[in-house]
Amino acid sequence: MAFGPYFLLATLEGLVTASILALTALGLSLVFGVMRVVNVAHGEFFMLGAVLAWAVSTAFAGHPAIGFSAALLVAPLVVGGAAFLSERLVLRRLDYNPEATIVATIGMLYIIQQLALTFYGADARPVQAPFNVRIQLPWFGYSGYKLFVIAAAIIVMLGTWLLLTRTKIGLIMRATQYDRETAQAFGIPVDRVYGGVFALGAMLAAVAAVLVVPTQQAHYLMGRDPLLLSFIVVIIGGLGSLRGTLVAALIVGLSDGIISVFFSPTLAKMLATALVALVLVFRPQGLFGVRTR
Amino acid sequence: MTEVRSNATRIWLLHAAVIVLLLAGNFLLPEYHRGMFSRALVLATYAMGYNLLFGYTGLLSLGHAMFFAAGMYGAGLPVYHLGWDVPLVFATGIAAAGLLSLAVGVLALRTTGVAFMIVTMMFAQIFFLATLYFTTWTRGEEGLVLQPTTRAIEFAGNTISLSDPSTRYLVALTLFAIVLLVSLRLVKSSFGRTLVAIRENEERVRMLGYNVFATKLLAVVFSGLVCGAAGAAYGLLFGYVGSGFASSQYSILALLYVLLGGAATTLGPLVGTLFMFYVIDYTSGLTSAYLLLVGVVLIILILFFPKGLLGTIREKWLPWLP
Fold it and tell me: Closest approach of chain A CAs to the CA of B145, in angstroms?
């Protein structure tokens, strides 16, 4: 194959990876930014979204688009509800102590993973794409659904950005992020904001999972890679910086495909992890972040 | 003064009694439980190594499985591929863990708090992936089985086989007892008190003129050496070296054992490990999902008993408990 078509294909696949990753990492970044909580269970919320997407879409007969739309609505809501509950019952009682919350979210990780294994099983199961269109590009036909994933991710991210910058809820969230105590003094119910942010973060992961699951199967261990990659993205982009998260997701998503051509996937993961650990050691504000307070 | 002296006597008596009780266990415990205890003793040693860093120094690492596994592979690979003697590979295992902890410590200690946790987790992940990547030597997840003939020590004309249940128990106990007494000695020393001071107020310790970085680095290396010794012993005693021991789950187990038994108590790791071993053993009849149990126990502990079993006892009844 000539360079041109190959490059286009790699770019498109990279963009799909990047958009899913950006959504997932955005959730992690939001939770860390506002609450200063490192949510190790974030990948499991992603997995839960995918598994629920399978459950919901198989419950609907008829055209796959009906089941998929239902999944896109139901899965994030259920995941958000579960996240909200776990925030109320566990994280809030820990007073958001950074170290205690990491231990608690590790506990959640195990619980969610094992519950998925018990009730969903160890099989990987496919979800049908809502539509099956091939879009003819200069050299080859490309799945219309994957282009839809990119578009949908952009829309969700735009929505989140508008929510954060143009609405009162967003203003409240940013105020809480900037200075928790002053926000509280101005009558912002910081406590409830935290519950909402944690749920929102998990919902973003769930949306990403529902979008991705027609292109890869739902499996109870599928939360591992998104967790690692989201960490990488959030750290490179600067902890808590949304713009950095987006840029880093594009870089990681696009380079992921290219790197895995040259190296074995295991070696690629090793190199990426080492690189990111070193970023955290030598440039803790991230590659694009600014040193804050 | 007499108060202090009687406390010191009490402490030594308590630790000696624990070791003697465990020694009696070799002769009194039924075969199945003796096997459980042998494993638990080695893992409790691993947890004691973790406790030095997490409990006493206040550095929460999420990557200690790499030190355990470094000891295990440092001992297992030379036995398997080169046929080296057991005492020699035990030393290479410890040395491997020591070198790794030195390198990781120098880098990771530049960060603090949450970043330290993530960085250690990432280094451990790299180590884990490395055990999968170099599958030619490690055979990845399948692991290496060390044959009983390679796990024997020639000593004064006799052959001591580490696959014999009684020998295994006694070797595990010896390692445990040595580490227990050394760490008891350590936490009572001025070095140990510096560690606790760093945990309580790092800035003040620095202001008093201590080299905080060097002290913390020493704690990381010491903790790595103990964990490496436990890993090497585990591989040699139970004859299996696999990448599963390098996975993040083993890092979390050390944290769980220490939290459960009581962070910054010398006997807490043993209590936590034994407790968890038997909880999993009893519930394994009900459910195979033991990770679910690990998750639930972690959350309950961090929510309601952040001081663990012995930590709570120390707070309420026995303030002299080290």
Answer: 23
| Closest C-alpha to A228, from A92, A25, A63 | A25
Among all chains, which residue has been given the structure tokens 């992921």? A256
Burial class (CB in 10 A: 0-12, 13-18, 19+), A117: middle
Is the residue at B69 inside a domain? yes
The SS3 of residue B159 is strand
CB contact under 8 A, A274 and B111: no
**Which residues in chain A are contacts of B130 at CB distance < 8 A?**
270
Q: Note down the domain range covering B33.
A: 19-247
Residue-wise DSSP of B162-174: TTSHHHHHHHHHH
Alpha helices in B83-164 (DSSP H): 86-108, 113-133, 135-138
What's the ipTM?
0.83
Number of domains in chain B: 1
B271 located within any domain: no
- Report pTM: 0.86
Give tens-digit pLDDT for B197-237. Answer: 999 999 999 999 999 999 999 999 999 999 999 999 999 99
Name chain A contacts of B122, Cβ cutoff 8 Å.
231, 273-274, 276-277, 280
List of chain A residues whose C-beta atoms are within 8 Å of the C-beta of residue B117 = 38, 99, 102
**Angle subtended by helix axes B113-133 and B248-261, to nearest 10:** 140
**What does the buried/exposed string (b/e) look like for B117-153 if buried means 16 or more CB atoms within 10 Å of the residue's CB?**
bbbbbbbbbbbbbbbbbeeeebbbeebbebeeebbbb
CA distance A188 to A172: 7
pLDDT tens readout for residues A153-188: 999 999 998 998 899 998 998 888 888 889 889 988
| Partner A contacted by B107 (CB < 8 A) | yes
Residue B242 is assigned to a structural domain of this protein: yes
Residue appearing with tokens 């030598």: A282
Of B114, B130, B133, which is closest to A98 when you measure between CB atoms?
Answer: B114
Q: Across the interface, which of A98, A110, A280 has its CB nearest the CB of B111?
A: A280
Tens digit of pLDDT for each residue in B8-37? Answer: 888 889 999 999 999 998 889 898 999 999
- Among A109-113, A126-130, A237-241, the minimum mean pLDDT is found in A237-241
